[in-house]
Specification:
The complex is a heterodimer of chains A (107) and B (118).
Chain A lengths: L3 E4 L2 E4 L5 E7 L7 E6 L6 E5 L3 E2 L7 E6 L2 E6 L8 E7 L6 E2 L3 E5 L1
Parallel strand pairs in A: 2-11
Antiparallel strand pairs in A: 1-3, 3-8, 4-5, 4-9, 5-6, 7-8, 9-10, 9-11
Chain B lengths: L2 E5 L2 E3 L5 E8 L8 E6 L5 E7 L6 E3 L7 E6 L4 E6 L8 E7 L8 E2 L3 E5 L2
Parallel strand pairs in B: 2-11
Antiparallel strand pairs in B: 1-3, 3-8, 4-5, 4-9, 5-6, 7-8, 9-10, 9-11
The chains are: A mainly beta (107), B mainly beta (118).
C-alpha cells in the first residue's frame, strides 16, 4: 500500500496567517491526491481533488499543489473556522490511503 | 438535500456481528461508487471497503477482508456493511462515503459508532 506522511503533525497559528501543510507519498501518485478538513465530532469535509482542484463551495483561500510524491495544502489567510485537522488521501494505488493528519490550532 | 445517513451502529461482543446501513438522498445513487471509511476515536481515517456502481466489484482493507461484506441496493438508494467476527480493534466511527475504491470521497455521512466490547 502507498504510505502518506504529513508534516507538521500539528501547528499553532493565528487568524490571518498563511499556513502550509505538506503531504508526501511513498511512491509516485501523479496528481491523484485529495484533501479533507475535519472538525471535532464531525465527519470529514472534502476540500480539494486531483491535487489542486477546489471543490465547489470551498473558499478560495484554500489551494493545493504538487504532483508525483510531494504535495501541499495552503490556507492563504487563516480564518477562525479553519481550525481543524487536515488529511490528505491518495487514490492512485489500491487500497486508497490517508495521511495521519495535521492539526491546526489557535496560537 | 444531498446527504448520506448511516445507521446500525452499537455495542457488540467480540465475535459478534453487526450490519450498518447508509441511506443516500439528493443525488443519483447508482451513478457513484461507494465506500466505508472508519476512524478510531481520536485517531486517523482508514478506508475499510468500497464497491462500484452496480456492486459487482468490491474491495476490502486487509484488516477486514473475509470478515466484512459490502453491498448496495440501488433500488433503495442504500449501502450496507455486514460485519462478522468483530474484534475490539474494529471499534470506531464508521462513515459512509461517496466514491469507490479508486477515487476520492466527496460526500460523507455523519458516522455511526461501533463499539466491540465484552
Amino acid at each position: 500500500a502507498i504510505q502518506l506522511t504529513q508534516s507538521p503533525s500539528s501547528l499553532s497559528a493565528s487568524v490571518g496567517d498563511r499556513v502550509t501543510i505538506t503531504c508526501r507519498a511513498s511512491q509516485g501518485i501523479r496528481s491523484a491526491l485529495a484533501w479533507y478538513q475535519q472538525k471535532p465530532g464531525k465527519a470529514p469535509k472534502f476540500l480539494i481533488y486531483d491535487a489542486s482542484s477546489l471543490e465547489s463551495g470551498v473558499p478560495s483561500r484554500f489551494s493545493g499543489s504538487g504532483s508525483g510524491t510531494d504535495f501541499t495544502l495552503t490556507i492563504s489567510s487563516l480564518q477562525p473556522e479553519d481550525f481543524a485537522t487536515y488529511y490528505c488521501q491518495q487514490f492512485h494505488g489500491y487500497p486508497p490511503t490517508f495521511g495521519p493528519g495535521t492539526k491546526v490550532d489557535i496560537k | 438535500e444531498v446527504q448520506l445517513v448511516e445507521s446500525g451502529g452499537g455495542v457488540v461482543r467480540p465475535g459478534g456481528s453487526l450490519r450498518l446501513s447508509c441511506a443516500a438522498s439528493g443525488f443519483t445513487f447508482d451513478d457513484y461508487g461507494m465506500s466505508w471509511v472508519r476512524q478510531v476515536p481520536g485517531k486517523g481515517l482508514e478506508w475499510v471497503s468500497g464497491l462500484n456502481l452496480n456492486g459487482d466489484s468490491t474491495g476490502y482493507a486487509d484488516s477486514v477482508r473475509g470478515r466484512f461484506t459490502i453491498s448496495r441496493d440501488n433500488a433503495k438508494n442504500s449501502l450496507y456493511l455486514q460485519m462478522n467476527s468483530l474484534r475490539a480493534e474494529d471499534t470506531a466511527f464508521y462513515y459512509c462515503a461517496r466514491g469507490g475504491y479508486r477515487n476520492y470521497f466527496d460526500l460523507w455521512g455523519q458516522g455511526t459508532l461501533v463499539t466491540v466490547s465484552s
